[in-house]
Design brief:
The structure holds 2 protein chains of 2 kinds. Chain A is mainly α. Chain A is about 50% helix and about 5% strand. Chain B is globular and about 65 Å long. The chains are: A mainly alpha, B alpha/beta.
Chain lengths: ~600, ~450
């Protein structure tokens, strides 16, 4: 069992990182003169050590039947709100851009537990619904056409609202849900006329929880559903209902409500079967909207919004201009698009030597491009100069200070974002000042001086040698051989990564990128991020079997992204859920953090 | 509720240094909200609370006052960094030797713990995700002091609280390190960084044509009633956990309803001019946006739109530059400078001084508005603090804490209180609670609180 051996090995290696860190942290702790009590510090470190497990290795026994982690209903994100409203009403909405940002979890905006409403959001929901309703009056969705015009057919209009409600709630609706809207309409029709009744009706729908949340109902459907192939259902787990499945798919791939095809497949009961799901994944992926979803994923995973705040010291980088922020972003977006849709493989994402250039970037990187080309220019660089995501200009510029490169930020990026390996913070009470730039020294020399003199250098053993090896890129992402008149020393050392086979010395970021691209741990980490994004939650122990299946599929298909997406959808985690009684008893057993204090 | 007479916009909120805010109509006794009017007649004014935050602590030499020879609390000279606040020295209380004991306890990196614990005095939740330092950390695990007091004192004010930000999400985004104010566990409140949006929230209804507002509110109420009905149709069909989520949502809906019922008659004054539409996340605009936000806060307090607010300058992970004082090192990085790095320390003190100047501007506004025998400033408690004591060590020992105003004479001002033994910061919150009429002896996690702050009241 080669696979198991590898996993066992990785686990022990993984542990060794923390043993090493724990030792160095202890050493550092003694120096923290202004530290809190030892007990408290110990608490910080041990809390961290205890919870670390970044790979979901399978348990000893394979569970019988399907398993899926605990989930919760999901509030639409700003992106999903606008996409959904646009599809529902038939005109473009940008209302949600003003909504307060989602509370993020590891960068992701769609975490089921953390993205919640607050008083400000509710006011925006209200005001947005009013503007959208007004616009709908002059530009109504087709099913609501009988509601507007010179002669209103009230009954046809109310039937229209019933149909509309199915689209808005993304499933067949109960009579009591329809009655709420019909009553509202009738009241206002009688007292204020057709326009008021119509707009009030729309507002009521757009503020209803059934619209704002992706609810996965645990009650009987209001319509009779075709029997599902529930033979795999166990005492604890059951197949997700067909309409819930339609929403899981459409929001994962498109960030919006299910289209008619998905709704039809839900109604005939065939959706949640492997064959149909495969076909649907292919169909969904062939639509432009899934490209935007891939962009959304990377924006959140890599924290690309930080590019909007990027600032450089013009004294050090005279070429800097704030307009480069947008260029960097466009360049990286195009690179991601290239890796996912043109090449379609993890290898392309990690190793492609392509950089997309705007005229300003072309000048910055000394790459002549034709004057009259449209859009960004796809430039191939020498393999030693550009190698995948890590060496993209936007990434290297983002992982830098305003006035110098940041070996630290780059090393942490490799560990945390690419390997999903997590480092504890420096202990309390430490003076952890980044050294000033020195016009007579290289960044490496400056940082080395700092750490050599510090007994806490051990803490940085995992970081600095890795980061120093990427010193052949400056703070604007330019490949460099000299810094401040001295040659760059780009020798690096990757120690204690989760994958022993890629540990060791290297020279330069491109070589590092090339080397780690071989690692299954990189694939594992990216798949884990995609899983989190797709499910709106982190994997828990009930997802282990699913995740292992996903990895197997991904690997067997040469790490093609489409196979990853398909494997996620076909996994038990995506197709099944905990039965209500089980979920309820688990939830009641935990101290629900949702209870609001002082609000009762 | 009838429409009230409106001030012309010109008569409001204009004048050199903004000294005219609120003053004319309040002193002329123009009609305000029912409740506010009654309080005015009886000579008692509501108490207000403002918490001002700046990130990454202070340098001790650039914060603490100098004691006088007499050794009395009232005998002290403000630190040079607080020079702009000297006119208000008699209305301040400075502290030394107060610790934020929750710091360093529980999950999360230091800046996460600092931000989440500062106003909640509770450790972070364990959470299901990792913070910036890779630690499993959720959001704070309980209500923050501003929200606790807001729940108690909001009365009929349209906004229970207001959360102002100045580039609050800068660099870090919406996460633990950028949130201070909590409705409850895992329920952070987002600050509003754009004064134009604040203005719309506070005054949009005032800009509505007279006569239209009642109609709008009637419709809004009807819609919300229907939405409440949808909550009940849905709640009975979902699982336990989702039901709790829906209940929390419905609770916030009721707050929105309450606000709607108060609009169109609940405000004591007319709308000021709208602030200029500036990009709120730009260093070039930071000074102007700060002024606009402070102006709006002053109006909100003086007009009794809200009685509780936080005012958050950026966040613990920020990369702010302050080019107008020649401070061009990224904020969080700059704060890490050790004691020997004089150039950086000087920049840091320059920033602290700038924050002090903003506070001075704000105090001047509040102090120019008479309320009874005193001023709005006297009826307000303004707390200025940070999420760590020192940026370079991330220590929580000896926190920077300044109080301005006295929440209606709740304590003596013009003092510098030096404790011989360290006091828990949460004790200050207990004192605040008592001053605002909440008779409890513990705030937050009781491990970090031992009662009211000794010697304050």
């Amino acid at each position: 069992m080669k696979k198991n051996k590898n996993q066992a090995m990785s686990k022990s290696l993984h542990l060794s990182v923390y043993v090493l860190l724990a030792l160095s942290v202890t050493a550092c702790k003694d120096r923290g003169k202004m530290a809190q009590s030892d007990a408290d510090q110990g608490g910080v470190v041990s809390a961290d050590m205890g919870g670390q497990s970044d790979d979901m290795s399978p348990g000893l026994s394979v569970p019988e039947g399907p398993m899926a982690g605990r989930t919760a209903m999901r509030l639409l994100t700003r992106y999903e709100y606008d996409q959904t409203v646009t599809d529902l009403l038939g005109f473009t909405s940008v209302e949600a851009r003003q909504f307060p940002p989602e509370n993020t979890a590891d960068g992701f905006e769609n975490n089921a537990w953390i993205h919640k409403v607050n008083p400000t959001t509710l006011r925006y929901y209200m005001e947005a619904s009013e503007r959208l309703a007004t616009e709908s009056w002059s530009n109504p969705p087709e099913v609501l056409a009988p509601c507007v015009g010179d002669e209103i057919d009230v009954n046809a209009c109310k039937d229209g609202f019933s149909t509309f409600l199915v689209r808005a709630f993304r499933r067949p609706v109960h009579d009591d849900e329809i009655a709420v809207i019909h009553n509202l309409y009738d009241d206002f029709y009688a007292s204020k006329g057709a326009e008021a009744a119509f707009t009030i009706g729309i507002q009521g729908i757009l503020q209803a929880p059934q619209f704002l949340y992706r609810v996965e109902l645990y009650e009987e459907s209001p319509v009779e559903l075709e029997p599902l192939d529930g033979e795999m259902n166990s005492e604890e787990f059951e197949l997700v209902g067909p309409y819930e499945m339609a929403s899981r798919l459409s929001y994962f791939f498109w960030g919006t409500m299910p289209d008619q095809t998905l709704m039809d497949l839900a109604s005939d009961g065939s959706l949640n079967t492997p064959e149909v799901l495969k076909a649907q994944v292919a169909r969904l992926l062939s639509d432009q909207r899934s490209q935007r979803m891939v962009y959304q994923f990377h924006r959140q995973w890599l924290g690309l919004d930080r590019l909007d705040n990027l600032g450089k010291d013009k004294a050090i980088y005279p070429e800097w201009d704030v307009s480069l922020r947008a260029d960097f972003r466009a360049s990286l977006d195009s690179f991601v698009e290239h890796a996912y849709w043109k090449e379609g493989t993890l290898d392309a994402l990690m190793r492609s030597n392509v950089v997309f250039l705007t005229p300003a970037l072309a000048e910055l990187y000394g790459q002549p491009i034709p004057d009259d080309h449209g859009g960004l220019w796809e430039a191939e660089f020498p393999e030693t100069e550009r190698k995948g995501l890590l060496t993209q200009p936007a990434v290297m510029s983002m992982l830098a200070y305003a006035n110098q490169s940041s070996p630290i930020a780059r090393a942490i990026f490799v560990r945390e974002k690419l390997f999903c390996q997590h480092l504890p913070p420096p202990p309390t009470g430490m003076d952890i000042t980044p050294p000033d730039p020195d016009p007579t020294a290289t960044t490496r020399e400056i940082f080395a001086i700092h750490t050599e003199q510090d007994t806490c250098a051990a803490c940085h053993r995992l970081i600095d040698p890795l980061g120093f090896g990427m010193e052949d890129y400056d703070g604007l992402g330019r490949k460099r051989e000299m810094e401040n008149g001295k040659p760059i020393d780009n020798s690096g050392d990757l120690v204690a990564s989760p994958d022993e086979t890629v540990n060791g010395e290297f020279n330069g970021a491109a070589e590092l990128a090339d080397k780690i691209a071989e690692s299954e741990k990189i694939a594992h980490c990216l798949a884990e991020q995609w899983f989190t994004f797709a499910m709106g939650r982190h994997a828990d122990e009930s997802d282990e079997a699913s995740f292992n299946q996903i990895m197997q599929q991904f690997k067997q298909n040469d790490y093609r992204f489409k196979s990853l997406f398909e494997a996620i959808v076909l996994s038990d985690s995506f197709r099944y859920r905990k039965k209500k009684e089980i979920a309820d008893s688990e939830a009641m057993g935990t101290d629900s953090s949702d209870e609001q204090e002082g609000m009762q | 509720m009838m429409q009230k007479k409106r001030l012309t916009r010109r008569s409001f909120l204009r004048g050199a240094g903004g000294l005219a805010v609120g003053l004319p109509f309040l002193s002329m006794g123009l009609p305000g909200s029912e409740a506010f009017g009654q309080e005015m007649k009886s000579g008692s004014f509501p108490k207000r609370l403002v918490i001002m935050f700046h990130p990454n602590g202070v340098i001790a030499d650039g914060w603490f006052p100098t004691e006088g020879a007499s050794g009395k609390e009232t005998d002290f000279a403000l630190n040079e960094v607080h020079q702009s606040l000297d006119p208000f020295k008699d209305k301040l209380v400075m502290f030394q030797n107060v610790d934020m004991q929750v710091g360093g306890v529980g999950p999360g990196g230091m800046h996460q713990q600092g931000m989440g614990g500062l106003l909640t005095s509770r450790p972070l939740n364990t959470g299901s995700f990792r913070g910036n330092a890779g630690l499993l950390a959720g959001y704070a695990s309980g209500i923050s002091i501003d929200q606790l007091i807001a729940n108690h004192v909001a009365g009929d004010t349209p906004y229970k609280s207001l959360e102002f930000g100045i580039r609050a999400d800068h660099h870090a985004g919406a996460e633990v390190m950028t949130r201070l104010s909590y409705l409850g566990s895992d329920q952070p409140l987002p600050p509003q960084n754009d004064p134009v949006e604040v203005y719309k929230a506070l005054f949009a209804d005032q800009m509505t044509k007279p006569g239209m507002l009642d109609e709008i509110n009637l419709r809004r109420q009807s819609v919300l009633d229907s939405v409440k009905d949808q909550f009940s149709t849905l709640s009975r069909r979902v699982g336990y956990e989702d039901r709790i989520r829906l209940e929390n949502h419905a609770t916030l809906m009721r707050d929105l309803e309450r606000r709607i019922s108060l609009e169109g008659g609940g405000l004591a004054c007319g709308a000021p001019d709208a602030p200029a539409d500036l990009d709120p996340d730009s260093k070039e605009n930071m000074e102007a946006v700060t002024r606009n936000q402070l102006d709006l806060l002053a109006v909100a307090l003086s007009c009794d739109i809200s009685r509780v607010a936080t005012f958050q300058f950026s966040n613990a992970w920020n990369k702010l530059l302050f080019p107008w004082i020649d401070s061009n090192i990224e904020g969080h990085t700059l704060s890490h400078a050790g004691p020997s790095n004089e150039a950086y320390n000087k920049q840091w003190i320059g920033r602290t001084q700038w924050y002090a100047e903003q506070l001075a501007y704000f105090l001047e506004r509040l102090d120019s508005i008479p309320e009874g025998d005193g001023t709005l400033l006297d009826n307000t408690a303004i707390l200025w603090t940070s999420e760590v004591a020192r940026g370079n060590t991330h220590s929580w020992r000896d926190m920077p804490i300044m109080l301005a105003g006295s929440a209606g004479g709740s304590w003596q001002t013009g003092r510098y209180i030096k404790y011989s033994s360290a006091q828990p910061m949460a004790n200050l919150y207990v004192s605040l609670m008592k001053s605002f009429g909440i008779d409890e002896d513990v705030f937050g996690d009781d491990r970090f609180c031992s009662g009211p702050l000794s010697g304050l009241v």
